[in-house]
Specification:
CATH topology: Rossmann fold
Structural class: alpha/beta
Number of strands: 6
Number of domains: 1
Oligomer: single chain
CATH architecture: 3-Layer(aba) Sandwich
CATH class: Alpha Beta
């Protein structure tokens, strides 16, 4: 079963200090509905502050299946990543000599963000989507998430 290591309502609820103390060095963030609402370019100020502060203490990377966007932050980005089976992310890790067990992925989707994290050996954090507006394919995946969630709760 695909189960994140941590559930959080938003980025604000994640204790990044604790994760840093535990030795995590690289934080990968989904963009749409994790950092900002789907189809929005502007990042809410509260999330900008979190990412900016974290980028001073660790490597911060945006990993999105979406098109390239201008992000007014000193962070790296991997656009059109192809999550969950992202060769771009694997190449990035290898190029930067990053160990997967030192990486955290934060995202709003079970079958892209969390699954990629589990496949690659990352610590996984699932947040609630910022907005209900989203791509039609994502809506389908949300339905599957609910089905998997109900099934897994019945088998506990």
């Amino acid at each position: 079963m695909i189960r994140p290591d941590l559930f959080a309502k938003s980025l604000e609820e994640i204790d990044f200090n604790k994760l840093l103390v535990e030795g995590y060095e690289c934080f990968l963030f989904d963009f749409d509905n994790t950092i900002t609402a789907w189809r929005e370019k502007a990042i809410p100020e509260r999330n900008k502050v979190i990412l900016l502060d974290l980028s001073k203490r660790a490597l911060v990377v945006i990993v999105s299946n979406g098109k390239r966007k201008d992000v007014d932050l000193p962070v790296e980005a991997i656009w059109r990543a192809g999550k969950p089976f992202s060769l771009k992310v694997l190449r990035f890790l290898k190029k930067r000599n990053l160990k997967p067990e030192k990486c955290v992925i934060v995202g709003d989707q079970l079958f892209t963000d969390v699954l990629m994290g589990k496949l690659f050996g990352f610590y996984t954090v699932k947040v609630e989507p910022i907005s209900e507006r989203e791509f039609v394919g994502t809506k389908f995946l949300r339905l599957l998430e609910k089905i998997v969630g109900r099934f897994s709760n019945e088998n506990r």
